Amino acid sequence: TTLFRSANIPEKSEIKEEKEPLIYIYNTHQTEEYNNYNVCDAASLLTKKLNDSGIKSIYEEQSMKVFLEANNLKYYNSYRASRNYMNEALKNNPTLKYFFDIHRDSVSKEKSTVTVDKKNYAKVLMIVGLDNPGSQNNLNNANRLNQIISSKAAGISRGIITKGGKGVNGIYNQDLSENVFLIEVGGKDNTKEEVENTIEVIYESILEYIRGII
After folding, report:
1. pTM recorded for the entire structure
2. What is the C-alpha end-to-end distance of the chain, expressed in Å?
3. Of the four listed, 41, 45, 151, 159, which is most buried by Cβ atoms within 10 Å?
4. Using an 8 Å Cβ cutoff, are 160 and 128 in contact?
């Protein structure tokens, strides 16, 4: 019954009244830390903002480390851990359409911070893997989201990096959906306030992105 009812709801209303999970947020590298803050805090905040706005979102709280240890895998296999949890989430919540993997970079604070109207933000960098047959769709969508983010705070984006070939993952689980986004939010020296300012921008940008294409 729910499926037939939701099919008749206008697109924008469907987002506002969405009762089934639409967005999945996670951290492949859960141990990445800022200055007195970490990527899990950032991802949890993003999830809360989306849920508070009426867009049902799931935050992955299961431990990547536990999966790696249970399967005798090293840290560099972390994307296998997050893939496992993503597939599990998709199986339990087939309505999921958008996936955000929140990371942080290791660059200096000078490179990872921008001031706009006397407010400091952790800069955003997006990564798209080229070793995925559908990578062009992922790249197109990353460009669209990046444009929205960039429009909200001048200089907040460091752009998009594409990675492929030997020595890198090259997929980042983006083969599971054209709407899997790997977002580096700031660097190791960014503060809680700087990261949270950027999470607000990302949150607003996600709203605009999904309302434009769903």
Report:
1. 0.90
2. 21
3. 45
4. yes
